[in-house]
Amino acid sequence: MKKIFLAMAVAIVTATAVSAQKDDSDSKITVSIHQTDQEDGYEGSAEQRCGIRFNLPMAGVVKIEVESVDGLPLAGTAITRQDAFGKTVVGDMAHTSTIITYISSEKSGFIPGKDYYISTLPCNLYGGYRFSIYKDGLVAHYFGVHQKVELGEFISPDDLVESELEFDKPGAPLVEKGRPKMDSKTHKLFVLYRKNPTEANRQALLDQMGVRYDKVVARKKNKLRELEREARTYSIVEHMQGIVDEMVENRETRIRQQFLRFIDPRRDDNPKDAWMVLRGASDATAYIGYAPVTNAEYAAFKPGFTYKSGQDNYPVVNISLQDAQAYCQWLTAQDSKHIYRLPSEEEWILGAGHMPKDVAMNANHVESGLTAVDAYKQSTGACGGIDFWGNCWEWTTSTDVDGQYLVKGGSWDAKRDDCRSEKSDDVRSGNKGYANVGFRVVRTDTPQSK
Q1: 345-352 and 251-263 helices cross at what angle (nearest 10)?
Q2: Where would you tag: which of 151, 195, 261, 395 has the fewest CB atoms within 10 A of its CB?
Q3: Where do the TM regions start and end (predicted)?
Q4: Buried b vs exposed e over 187-212: b needs ≥16 C-beta within 10 Å?
């Protein structure tokens, strides 16, 4: 009898151990970095297969390339197991890659209107992914954001519009050619808000502008990944990382500034004068100067002020912040309807807007010194003004924690990236003049005029 009970106990323990071993067993999935519409590049449980589904209406697409802009693994081998709650989770990964290529088996390309499935590892793509479409020897890059690939699921580029794709030669720099165009979805929400400015419509537009901003950040991140692979010096990578970090850190502020400028309904009553509507400013009567104050304009205020012959239209420099404020007070004293002052950093950014990557300007020693304020007048800010970037830095009334005043826009001897509107760490002492710092003026209505 004892032997029977012992045998039963051993059987129970063995069965329990086998069951536990089965529950705790690991499974493996493998995703290839090279896939075709005939070979999906996936090995593992069919129920766990996941990735990106696409369906393109255009003909002639022969290749798709996908990359995580955050450098997260899309291909390789991953171990999956059951956690304590019975949910399948992903464990260790090996031989990973952040890029997958998917090629058509037909020379004519993928069939328009047909669903295709690119296998990937599970991946949180909230920060973005690049979806590159190769067609007729050219390539267009779509950037998706706010998505996540879960085990057993396929995501799709949710707002890819063929007419909005911009094709270029493979290997062309991933940069914005001018300011990003308004996409169709944002335009529809903008029109809806203008017609019916409810809180719901406002929030929908604001959310969409957040998506547009995050797509720009995703593009910058992808450029960073590209530099990490190809840059010869780490300083270039480090500099680009700083730009990305700044955009992420200041996301809410930048979106708010863009939104305020976007919804401001004001029009310039006299576009030919020297004052441009400062859209988005908290003071609805705010205008900003078309250009920095020139030598000739400053000389009218300060008798005895001298400068080199032929430089009437050059920006006035070597002027302290206090001197610039005195000039503004002089303008105010002559005008009973307006108040003149220096801009805050936010007002300056609202006037300038985002600096286009291919902007023409006097920076990075492209000239041997200052130029006339209209020398690069083809490059205009968001308000329509000129000379926001390069030539000379411009005073603002905003300060850092040490009481130093922020200057904006860069100068002729500054690096191009230091001229970016968003750069916010260049400061000067307000009681000194500098050979590469000038100023621009903001005009508002007096209380009586308002």
Answers
A1: 60
A2: 195
A3: none
A4: eebbeebeeeeeeebeeebbebbbbb
- Direct distance between the N- and C-terminal alpha carbons of the chain, in angstroms, rounded to an integer: 104
Q: How far apart are CA 165 and CA 336, in angstroms?
A: 52
Helices (H), 65-198: 184-195
As given in the structure block, the two tokens for residue 229 are 């692979």
Give the Cβ contact number of residue 309 at 10 Å.
6
Give me the DSSP letters along 277-327: E-TT-SSTT-EEESSPPBHHHHHHHSTT----TT-TTSBP-S--HHHHHHH
Closest CA to 381 of 285, 246, 261: 261
> In the structure, what pLDDT confidence band is assigned to residue 265 with cuts at 50, 70 and 90?
confident
Alpha carbon distance 315, 116 (integer Å): 58
**SS3 (DSSP) at 203:** helix
- What does pTM read for this prediction? 0.80
Tokens coding 93: 């990964």
Map out the domains of the chain as residue ranges: 24-168, 184-262, 269-450
Place of tokens 């970037």: 389
Taking the C-alpha atoms of residue 385 and residue 394, their distance in angstroms, rounded to an integer, is: 14
Q: Looking at beta carbons, which pairs linking 184-187 to residues 24 or more positions away fall under 8 Å?
A: 185/159, 186/212
Half-sphere exposure at residue 188, Cβ-oriented, CA atoms within 13 angstroms: 4
Q: Which two tokens stand for residue 75?
A: 């291909």
- Cβ(153)–Cβ(167) under 8 Å? no
Whether 362 contacts 370, CB under 8 Å: yes
Buried b (16+ CB within 10 A) or exposed e, 323-349: bbbebbeebbeeeeebbbbbbbbbbbb
The pair of structure tokens assigned to 15 is: 């069965």
pLDDT confidence of residue 133: 98
Q: Per the structure block, which two tokens stand in for 95?
A: 């031989």
Domain 269-450, CATH number (from 3.40.1400.10, 3.90.1580.10, 1.10.10.10, 3.30.450.20):
3.90.1580.10
Residue 364: left if φ>0, alpha if ψ -120 to 50, beta else—which one?
left
Q: What is the mean pLDDT of the chain?
A: 90
Identity of the highest mean pLDDT range in 75-84, 242-251, 378-387: 378-387
Residue type, 365: H
CA–centroid distance for 249 within its chain: 11
70 CB-side CA count, 13 A: 17
Could you give the CA distance from residue 358 to residue 160 in angstroms, rounded to a whole number? Answer: 25
